[in-house]
Amino acid sequence: MKVKIEKIDHIGIAVKDLEAKIALWEGILGIKAGKIEELPERGVKLAHLHVPHSPTVELVTPLNEQAAVARFLAERGEGIHHFCFLVKNIESAFKELKKKGVQFVQDKPYLGAGGSRIIFIHPRSLGGVLIELKEEKRQKGKLLRRPIQRVDG
Ligand SMILES: [Zn+2]
Question: How far is CA 127 from CA 76, 103, 104, 131, in A?
């Protein structure tokens, strides 16, 4: 079986000051950010800038020093952090890619922004590029949702 990539969902940009960078991107490019979302289990806070007919731009900042994106910022500074591909079924994509020897950052798919399920492919498996796989939140069905702490921005 092959993994079916549906589209690029978003491009992740690592930033140090989320609110300041939202204002910068909105001010310079005129693209509007959605709500700021805090994901304590991932140690990040993020917001999506909505680009017409296109993937969103995800600005992401660490909530603590242990977050992977904190290490990224310390080592490389602000900039492009990852691309996210949308898949229909993340569990089957995960299993399929594991069989091919692809290495992942996490042990299994977990809760991402907006109730989605995500997992990151390790950059060493894709030529130095960090790739996120995402399955959108299902309206009904078997996906379990834990509450997400929301912060108005
Ligand atoms: Zn992302």
Answer: 17, 12, 13, 10
26 has a pLDDT exceeding 80:
yes
Distance 100 CA to ligand 1 centre (A): 23
For the segment 39-65, what is each residue's pLDDT rounded down to a tens digit?
Answer: 998 899 999 999 999 999 999 999 999
Q: How far is the CA of 57 from the centre of ligand 1 (A)?
A: 9
Ligand 1 centroid, distance to 75 Cα (angstroms): 19
Ligand 1 centroid – CA 104 distance (Å) = 15
State the total domains in the chain. Answer: 1
What's the whole-model pTM score? 0.85
CATH of the domain at 116: 3.10.180.10
Distance 119 CA to ligand 1 centre (A): 9
Cα–Cα nearest to 84, from 134, 45, 43, 13: 134
* Position 150 in a domain: no
